[in-house]
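Tokens as discussed.
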């Protein structure tokens, strides 16, 4: 299964929306360089499918990639149904392992306050980077 990276997003603070910067560097066992969520833990990079964002758009809010605080917005992969431990190739050289599906959303989340809902707890996934490399909009992401 193969999909496409539709956005590469970072933020300087946790609990806020991210901005699409178009490209970045995935650092092994750390995360997306320059992002507040990067670090040596199991949730180094967050992913959300564009298809999930489009479901929210149908309910009214005009949401964009990064608005749900995801690092990578993808298209064409059924992220939420990937089993834990699934390995992904991101771009030309980065590899990652799915470590968590969904999350607990904290009460002071900027996104929840804006739209009264957040899909990351239900449809976002998190990965740990096994190998780093560049990533940019248009790159492929594939299940290994």
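Sequence:
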């Amino acid at each position: 299964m193969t999909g496409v990276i539709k956005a590469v997003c970072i933020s300087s603070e946790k609990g806020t929306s991210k901005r699409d910067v178009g490209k970045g560097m995935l650092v092994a066992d750390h995360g997306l360089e320059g992002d507040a969520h990067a670090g040596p833990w199991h949730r180094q990079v967050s992913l959300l499918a564009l298809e999930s964002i489009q479901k929210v758009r149908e309910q009214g809010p005009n949401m964009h990639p990064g608005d749900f605080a995801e690092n990578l917005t993808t298209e064409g992969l059924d992220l939420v149904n990937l089993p834990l431990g699934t390995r992904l190739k991101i771009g030309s050289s980065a590899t990652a392992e799915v470590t968590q599906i969904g999350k607990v959303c904290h009460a002071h989340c900027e996104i929840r306050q804006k739209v009264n809902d957040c899909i990351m707890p239900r449809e976002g996934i998190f990965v740990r980077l096994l190998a780093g490399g560049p990533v940019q909009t248009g790159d492929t992401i594939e299940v290994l």
